[in-house]
Design goal:
The complex is a heterodimer of chains A (509) and B (132). Chain A is α/β, with parallel strands linked by helices and 509 residues long. Chain A is built from 15 helices and 16 strands. In chain A, 37% of the residues lie in helices and 19% in strands. In chain A, the strands form 3 sheets. An 8-stranded mixed beta sheet of chain A has the order 8-12-11-13-14-10-15-16, with helices on both faces. In chain A, strands 1-2-5-4-3-6 form a 6-stranded antiparallel beta barrel. Chain A has a two-stranded antiparallel ribbon with strand order 7-9. The longest helix of chain A is centred in the middle third of the chain and has 20 residues. Chain B is an alpha+beta fold. Chain B contains 5 helices and 4 strands, in the order αααβαβββα. The model of chain B has no long low-confidence stretch (mean pLDDT 87). The chains are: A alpha/beta (509), B alpha+beta (132). At the A-B interface, helix 1 and strand 1 of A face strand 4 and helix 5 of B.
């Protein structure tokens, strides 16, 4: 652009400029503090409308009373003084959506906080939106592979499902969610990770890990850190959900992780109490259930007439000392379509993911499993259930009868094979092969402490010499007789290369 | 229901309305005595505020603050009052504030509306248009 053009452009703009008299509704701040402002005036403000406090500080009108408006301030309250003017904007709280936010770290207002420049989105979605109606929905029928053997087989998650991850602190809840995000590479799923009240150092670590594994290309991180005011924590999951809804409306699949909703409930309790809403059980306000149910209802599987997109939600709840019957955990358990229950005891025993297979369920996901997985999962679930019954007797060792000993023997190997490291999600066909091996007795002559090595070798063998078997499972998605024979052959020839197998005469360990 | 400052304001207005203008002084004295008796003299300021609001509402008045760079003339004041009567059907009580920062034009504030027709506002608008 040369100089003349610039001048011409400006002249055109100046000519076009209409000098309008602005008419604006204003109110004045009556009281401010703790992230809450009491405002007089502003007679026809909407509930949930954005208010402009000046200096770039925004607020949201929450309580509309006879003489006053109770508003939460999104940002610093220090700059707001008593008597300051507040302008209404006529807009409901909204966030930027679309490709522009993918791969970015944003705050709950959609402002970039990763230092990679402003977000240039041309579309905005309201933060609070009514969930898709029943007419637009469809049953869950496509799997969302987490890449974790124990989950994909026993507690499968479908696209559009809401599966709760619940457990004490330090039991690997976030790790589970992050592994799932990493496993969505190349699956056409856009991921959104909403961090609510998390340490920012932890988020920096997660971003680094996701970037290194190429998962940031399809992931957005919505961060409301531990030092952010409660109102921002409160709107964070709704903002993340709105960003996901855009892609769902485009017919794409979305995964949203809310980490975690117990901190969200605490933030909402803080806002509510400051707004003088009456407290109820554990001082949570009366609409705490509605808070989470309206958020999680927004996950859906849309039918073809509405684009066929889906939004899967993985809410996380942190329990205190394994108490899943506390107020917030029971609420969210009853809203979601199942839960993955992680236990610290199992975690310290080295069972990672530390999933309690007895208390974990998935209420809709099994409809979404591929046939091959269904075939191996049925037997696996049964064997694991029997093992749980008998595990207590394991210490009696040789006093047990033959069939009990066999059950325990099998169960120990299954537990071992279901262990999986962090950042190591597996493709579904590899999971199927490993589980097939386990439930069909191929592990019975492998010593328990050698199972890890056996599995690594097995995967090496199948991705190397026997890769056509994996390809067949991946394309046909079921175990036909032909494929089954091929698996058996491959397994037999693999086992011949091993030297640590227990000989038949030796008593089994 | 608890008695609040608004109730006092309404009661005072009705008492003043029902009696002759000559008795206003005694009524006000009685009112202050009543406030003292009820130990709510500290809330007098709020009651005055509520009374003003209620009075204006009842009498069809509206307080208008006109800000301008220079003091406006009586004729202009009248014209503004007429314009306001046209839109709101209320009689305007105008207070003029001189604010040289506006450079030119007028800024009206009434009820919870701000009508900004000042030169300063126009320049600000021009600035944002050119920036985008």
């Amino acid at each position: 652009m040369d100089k003349n053009q610039i001048v011409e452009n400006l002249t055109a703009q100046i000519k076009k400029f209409e000098n309008k008299v602005s008419v604006q509704k204003v109110g004045s701040v009556f009281e401010v503090g703790d992230g809450i402002a009491k405002i007089s005036g502003l007679s026809d403000v909407m509930a949930g409308e954005i208010l402009d406090f000046g200096d770039g500080v925004m607020g949201v009108a929450l309580n509309l009373e006879e003489d006053f408006i109770g508003a939460m301030v999104l940002g610093e309250t220090q700059k707001i003084t008593e008597g300051a003017t507040v302008k209404s904007t006529g807009r409901i709280l909204e966030v930027p959506v679309g490709q522009a936010v993918v791969g970015r770290v944003v705050n709950p207002l959609g402002v970039a906080i990763d230092g990679k420049g402003d977000i240039k989105a041309d579309k905005f979605y309201p933060v609070e939106k009514i969930a898709p109606r029943v007419i637009t929905r469809k049953g869950v029928n496509t799997p969302l592979q987490t890449g974790i053997k124990a989950i994909d087989s026993m507690i499968p998650i479908g696209r559009g499902q809401r599966e709760l991850i619940i457990g004490d602190r330090q039991t690997g809840k976030t790790a589970l969610a992050i592994d799932t995000i990493i496993n969505q590479k190349g699956q056409g799923v856009t991921c959104i990770y909403v961090a609510i009240g998390q340490k920012e150092s932890k988020i920096a670590q997660i971003v680094a890990e996701l970037t290194q594994r190429g998962a940031m290309d399809y992931t957005t991180i919505v961060l409301a850190g531990a030092s952010d005011p409660a109102p921002l924590l409160y709107i964070a999951p709704f903002a993340g959900c709105a960003m996901g809804e855009y892609f769902m409306d485009q017919g794409q699949d979305v995964l949203v992780v809310y980490d975690d909703l117990s901190k969200h409930a605490v933030a909402y309790r803080e806002v509510s109490l400051l707004l003088r809403r009456p407290p109820g059980r554990e001082a949570y306000p009366g609409d705490i259930f509605y808070l989470h149910s309206r958020l999680l209802e927004r996950s859906a599987r849309l039918n073809e007439d509405y684009g066929g997109g889906s939004l899967t939600a993985l809410p996380i709840i942190e329990t205190q000392a394994g108490d899943i019957s506390a107020y917030i955990p029971t609420n969210v358990i009853s809203i979601t379509d199942g839960q993955i229950f992680l236990e610290s005891d199992l975690f310290y025993q080295g069972v990672r993911p530390a999933m309690n297979t007895g208390l974990s369920v998935s209420r809709v996901g099994s409809a979404a499993q591929i046939k091959a997985m269904k075939k191996v999962a049925g037997k696996l679930k049964l064997d694991m259930a029997q093992y749980r019954e008998l595990a207590a007797f394991a210490q009696f060792g040789s006093d047990l009868d033959e069939s009990t000993r066999k059950q325990i023997h099998r169960g120990m190997r299954l537990t071992e094979i279901l262990k999986q490291g962090q950042y190591a999600p597996l493709p579904v066909e590899q999971e199927v092969v490993i589980l097939y091996t386990a439930i069909n007795g191929y592990l019975d002559d492998v010593p328990v402490e050698k199972i890890k090595d056996f599995e690594t070798g097995l995967l090496e063998y199948f991705t190397g010499q026997a890769q056509e078997v994996l390809k067949l499972i991946a394309t046909q998605k079921e175990i036909t007789e032909e494929i089954e024979n091929k698996i058996k052959q491959a397994l037999d020839s693999y086992k011949q290369t091993l030297d640590y197998l227990i000989k038949a005469e030796e008593p089994a360990k | 229901m608890k008695t609040n400052t608004k109730h006092y304001a309404i009661a005072l207005y009705q008492a003043l309305k029902e009696t002759k203008a000559s008795e206003n002084q005694t009524i006000l004295e009685n009112f202050v005595n009543l406030l003292a008796e009820k130990h709510i003299l500290s809330q007098a300021r709020q009651i005055i505020k509520d009374f003003k609001k209620y009075y204006n509402q009842q009498e069809g008045l509206i307080e208008v603050t006109v800000s301008s760079a220079e003091k406006i003339s009586t004729a202009e004041e009248k014209q503004i009052a007429e314009e306001i009567k046209k839109t709101t059907h209320l009689k305007a009580e105008i207070t003029n504030e001189v604010d040289p920062e506006l450079i030119g034009g007028l800024k009206l504030e009434f009820a919870d509306l701000v009508v900004d027709g000042s030169l300063k506002n126009s320049l600000n608008n021009l600035k944002t248009t050119l920036k985008s």
